[in-house]
Amino acid sequence: VNELSPVPIIAINHLGVIVRFSHAAEEEFRVASSTVVGENIKLLQPAAIAADHDGFLSRYLRTGVKRIVGTTRMIQCRRWDGTLFAAEISVREVRNPSDPTAMPNFVGYIRNMEEELRIQESFKEGNSMLELSPIPVISISLRGTILDVNPAAEQTFRYPRTDMVGKNVKMLMPQSVAVNHDGYLEQYLVTRRKSIIDSVRNVIAMRKGDIQFHCEIAVREIAVDGMENMYLGYIRDVTADLKMAEAATLNEAVNSLSTTPLVVCDPLGTILKFSQAAEQLFGYDAGEVLDKNVKLLMPPSIAIKHDRFLEVYKATRRKHVVDSSREVEARKKDGTVFRCEIGVREVLNPDGHSTSVFVGYIRSMDESVLRVGQSAEVNGMMMDLAVQGVIIIDRYGTIERVNDALLELLHIPSSQHILGKNIKILMPDSIAEKHDEFLSTYYATRVKHVIDSTRQTQAREWGTNKTFPIEIAVREIIEKGKEPRYLGYIRRIDKDLEIQTVKKTSAAALDLSPYATVVIDAKGTILMFSRAAEALFECEEDIAARHDEYLATYRRTGEKHVIDSVRAISAKTLKGTIVPIQLQIKECAFSIKGLESVFVGYISRLE
Description:
- By secondary structure, the chain is an alpha+beta fold.
- 31% of the residues lie in helices and 30% in strands.
- The chain is built from 20 helices and 25 strands.
- The strands form five sheets. The protein has a five-stranded antiparallel sheet with strand order 2-1-5-4-3.
- A hairpin with a 7-residue loop joins strand 19 and strand 20.
- The termini are far apart.
């Protein structure tokens, strides 16, 4: 159990000395058990906790009063390399039943809460952030019942919220997946083995009308105080991504015309395709290498290990080289060994399953080949694959090239509608009428106002007068002997602006309140300070907390002396003036595990 448990387990004796350290604990704390067994547990605690830990143990052994033993609480842990992380720890006492006089041991079960807290932290922004999120989000119960969905999920699945909430999430799956889903949930509750939770997967979902589509889903388990846990799923429609991958799969034109050397292999390393650029780089004709093992292109020190690399990947699907780029050594036909950068991709079908084909792109580190690798054709392929809108214009504003993402962003049916036309057709009239002047002025003066910067502006939806906010970054393309061209990256930001508006509205409401309002966290750090508070204390927002001891005592004991009461006290302004005030403090405790309370003080001046 100690070695197989995915949960880090640490056992200590009555003196705090580590006697057991599980494999999962080794991975979490980044230290071998042989290093820490026999050492005091304080080595894995922050200094503030470690200083008191011996006292905690001796007090418990003396009094038997349980404050930590038998409970679960949030703490900070310290890894061997000194980094800290938030964790949930459960401590149990273990005694020897055959020897009642023997001193006890203590077993701690640790759960890293960093990822969960990052998710929970986002809840502080309120439901408005979820409502405005462009990413579909669905929460379900442990049994698969849909608890809530956001507007983006309604739009993606084409069901209104009322038709989904209360129903089993299987309604959003094809029958081939849905038939097994209840079993997956039950199996996880029994075994706690994570196959989908805390991972990102490509699956097939089903929207209204039994329309299937490919999506990417990330699932997290959320623990809520006093309630049953739930699952939160983030869904991204990847239909467009897969169509793009399908269009690019083993494209014969790219293979024959690309200036980037390309080698295609099967899972055994047999060469299936060898491009003309690869022939030039390695000195082989394609006929000399086709159906041969790719080890032919490697120096012996690498070739001897390559079959084993392929076998391990096939068995484990763990990617060390696939979907990455790295510098390696390669060997030409004449035996010359040279440094190169290689990127390996596994070709997938539109359904996300492997075609058992691997494509290797090779770039010699030689400078002349490097220049070839930066050819316009390769740049064009990268532009077509970009998820942001991309547009290239000449010095006069004539559109030379756009990618599919831009066409989708502006709702343009085809690139043929705009190629060869002036970019002003994509702008509101108020901007378009000045654009020619902007271009000519920059060409004459070379003074950059827009070039090499990112700014917010407006774009016009194709075929309408409707405008929407965008963020655009412009770069100048300079090629020897040619006139300059301009490259623009465009991103729609209307959703970003809506979120900013919600935040600004909340801050404005606080500033308009006649009550002096101060919000602090559990350590006394001031988070918000209203204008009425500024006027009362005759100071600016940046003031220091002065009652750390009071807060620490309350956090330790939970005894309320000021919280939930109304008191008349004296306060001091930053100028030293003593003023009588009435103070009422409320504790805002979150229902989500790991979120510390904040305290809101309402202050009025007493005349």
